[in-house]
Amino acid sequence: MSAALDEGPGFGVYVHWPFCAAKCPYCDFNSHVRHQPVDQERFAAAFARELAAMRARTGARSVSSIFLGGGTPSLMEPGTVGAILDAVAANWRVPAGVEITLEANPSSVEADRFRGYRAAGVNRVSLGVQALNDRDLRFLGRLHNVEEALGAIRLAREIFPRISFDLIYARPGQTVEAWTAELKEAIGHAADHLSLYQLTIEEGTPFFALRAAGKLAVPDTDLAADLYQATQEVTAVHGLPAYEISNHAKPGSESRHNLIYWRYGEYVGVGPGAHGRFIDDGRRVVTFTEKHPETWLGLVEARGSGVVGGEMLTRSEEADEFLLMGLRLVEGIDLDRYEKLAGHPLSPRRVAILREEGLLEPVGNSRLRATPAGMVVLDALVADLAR
């Protein structure tokens, strides 16, 4: 990987814009539909106040990446984005060339707005395409069609130095052959990065209710595994190999922000429903903010922050999180760092058993990673390894 392992995992800033034009039936993110215009100036001021509150806890830091997620951040005016980025820079050092990503939906893409985001400092855009046929886009509740999606990709490639887009696979009725063809088409449009997620049915979503009622059937475990395997093979052959379980990039084009998460770095999270994990007074803390946008806004205006909870992690909890995040990466985990976090090494006996089962493999003398077979059962693998 081009992002050097010895640079450290970094320090990121995540900003959550919680508003969407419509709620997708598979989505369990903290996103909300508002039928009246959002007071963006008021929200931008609240983001600035919460960023200042986080700065008081983290101290002076150098920012490795900024990520504007949601929701649908491309519903923000460029001026709102610019105000938020200015607030980040007012609190921490932001070196030139830092990755600044904004998530966008093709249905909310406008050329002038994209140029405004670029002028504000955004240098990477992540498009929520999700499918390359209109039938499945309708099924997924997306507001765009394929023509609009491809137009958004072309426009993004013209304006931004780096782009990525998402697709969802393991959709009802999807075959390996159909997905392979769609994936090859997607690679033809991709610049340097693709995020390819298996459709999961999350509790509390409309899709969960439909499946419970017997009205929605998704591929079984064996077919899902075949679709995953096809994904790895096709992307590798076409120069976008996996660097994480669901993410694929040309070498050097990995998402620097997400690498902070997976390498167990530090990040602050601001905005409704955002989470953060950073060192505060020598210990790693977890913070989370009020999810309801207007309630969060009131809290920030009243007391400077919308944080409503958090905890200080134990060494064991840190080590478990480090395993869960790091084994998602093709580069795997640093065994010495695990030992420092946990206070003890991984069990040689457990490691040996999982290696014999073909689920783990060493990377040189100091790292360990999940094999392709291990990636398919990653949650179980981590639970087994951590016990």
Q: How would you characterize the overall build of this protein?
A:
The protein is of the alpha/beta class and 387 residues long. It folds into 2 domains: 7-261, TIM Barrel, CATH 3.20.20; 325-386, no CATH class. Helix content is 42%, strand content 22%. The protein has helices at 40-58, 78-91, 111-120, 134-139, 146-159, 176-189, 206-212, 221-237, 256-262, 293-303, 315-326, 335-342, 348-356, 372-376, 378-386; strands at 11-17, 19-20, 32-33, 65-70, 99-104, 124-130, 162-169, 193-198, 242-244, 247-249, 266-270, 275-280, 283-289, 307-312, 333-334, 360-363, 367-370. It starts with 10 loop residues before the first strand and ends with a helix. Mean pLDDT is 93; it is low at 1-6.
Number of separate structural domains: 2
Percentage of residues assigned to helices? 40-55%
CATH topology of the largest domain: TIM Barrel
CA(first)-CA(last) distance: 30 Å
Shape designation: globular
Question: Residue ranges: pLDDT <50 for 5 or more in a row?
Answer: 1-6
> Largest sheet, order of strands side by side?
9-10-8-7-6-5-4-1-11
At the first level of CATH, what is the class of the largest domain?
A: Alpha Beta
Radius of gyration over all CA atoms, rounded: 21 Å
What's the total number of strands?
Answer: 17
What would CATH call the homologous superfamily of the largest domain?
Answer: Aldolase class I
So, CATH architecture of the largest domain? Alpha-Beta Barrel
In DSSP terms, counting alpha (H) and pi (I) runs of 4 or more, how many helices?
15
Query: What is the arithmetic mean of pLDDT?
Result: 93
Largest sheet: 9 strands, mixed
